[in-house]
Amino acid sequence: MLFARDFHEIDAEYWSGLPSGMRRPDVLSDWSEANFRQPVDCFLEGPDFDGKGNLYVVDIPFGRIFRIDPDRQWHMATEYDGWPNGLKCQADGSLLVADYRRGLVRIGIDGKVHEAVAHRHSEHFRGLNDLTAERDGVVFFTDQGQSGMQDPSGRVYRWRPAARVAPSILLDRIPSPNGLALNPQGDQLYVAVTRDNAIWRLPLQSDGSTSKVGRWIQLSGGTGPDGIACDASGNVWVAHIGSGCVWRFNPRGEATLRVHTPGNWPTNMAIHHQTGDVFIVESQRGQILRVAAGT
Fold this sequence. Notes:
The protein is mainly beta. It has a single domain (2-139, 214-291), classed as TolB, C-terminal domain (Neuraminidase). The protein is 2% helix and 51% strand. The strands form 7 sheets. Strands 1-24-23-22-21 form a 5-stranded mixed sheet, with no helix packed on it. A hairpin with a 4-residue loop joins strand 23 (245-249) and strand 24 (254-260). The model has no long low-confidence stretch (mean pLDDT 95).
């Protein structure tokens, strides 16, 4: 891992947390049994801001999506039979969700869940994880499943909703593709490859393909990178689960900031559209942390 000369470390500040009345401490869900073998009262992920400054997050084990308003009040947006993971707010007020069980689903402003993409040419996904979108509406999403070094079968898909065609495989044979983010120019797609403990860079071609894919950042320790985000300056923020920190890398791939979190499970970030502040989800604690812009 490369380090810039001004590399420094800070602690993330607490911003908000899931209220106790919304937690489910004594419920053993199928998801928590498979992943932790014990109940978890929540497991937050997939943060994203809408145009009104509301922050949306998912609660994977209980199929819930919460809306946190600018006054830090929590509201239930919807609850359904699924394992929502990644989420992106849409211009029309709907939500596009990467669901591990159900594929891509769209949730309307009325809270109703609609199938968007459940399979590709009748082949079901292994288990979707995260998604991001270009300005023209093209969606990229990761199909992680249980892939890893022992089974490098993960994929990154590219989908054009307006074209009404099946998603195409942008890249396959990946050992656990997770979070993903586009650079400001829209010509580089960064993918967190958890079991490789690395960030891969996928140059995007004009025909919708990729070439000369390579490992951009090699991390060490922890479990591996989870969610990633790219800010307006081209810095890439990486949630490093198992290490209790979030890294910031400049466009040259040099680490310039390490943000410490109170738990070992910082899983994803969202960047506020107006302020540029970075909001971090600490999943097992059910907390939202904040890093001020310009830090």
